Amino acid sequence: MFTKRERLYIFGAGTDIEPLVKIASKLDFIVCLIDPRTARCNKENFPTAEELIIEFPHVYIQQKDLPLNSFVLIMTHNFRWDQTVLKSLIKKTPKYIGILGPKKRTERLLYPELIPDFLHTPVGIDISAEGSEEIAISISAELIKKRNRNKIN
Q: N or C: fewer beta carbons within 10 Å in the chain?
């Protein structure tokens, strides 16, 4: 049976994202990476990403409308970029939004608004993950859970 591949937008291309892109690609997500750094956002670092967009995340999100059925991860490690991307996406509510970092940081990103129930913060299933590979597994597990729940509903 043919299953439509889900599109996963990842804002940020730090070294901690490399294992996540590799795993998500193997799990049949179409990975689209957005980051302004050509030294990071390239095929050498992310050979399995299907799309590499060299752009500031906060600029990209203001110029593009992401499909509502998208999965989105905000992982830039830049407070202002994350804040702009998150506040823009909250209004559009794609299928899944996950944000890296502790819940307190997300509260600061959204202040004075409260964190909506649909936002996954911190991103990933709590498995007491340590290191980028384990965090990638935790995030991937949550993506699978959301994708499979959507197939049922």
A: N
Q: What are phi and psi of 7, to 5 degrees?
A: -90, 130
Say which CATH number the domain at 70 has.
3.40.50.720
User: Of the candidates 102, 39, 34, which has an alpha carbon nearest to the alpha carbon of residue 62?
Assistant: 34
| Helix locations, the chain, DSSP H | 18-26, 57-63, 79-92, 103-110, 131-152
Closest CA to 86 of 103, 109, 55: 109
CA distance 47 to 42: 8
Find where tokens 């407070």 sit.
79
Q: For 76-99, how does the pLDDT look when each residue is reduced to its tens digit (9 = 90+)? A: 999 999 999 999 999 888 999 999
Number of folded domains that form the chain: 1
112 Cβ contact partners less than 8 Å away, ≥ 6 residues apart? none
Q: pTM of the prediction?
A: 0.94
1 domain-assigned? no
Average pLDDT over residues 57-66: 93
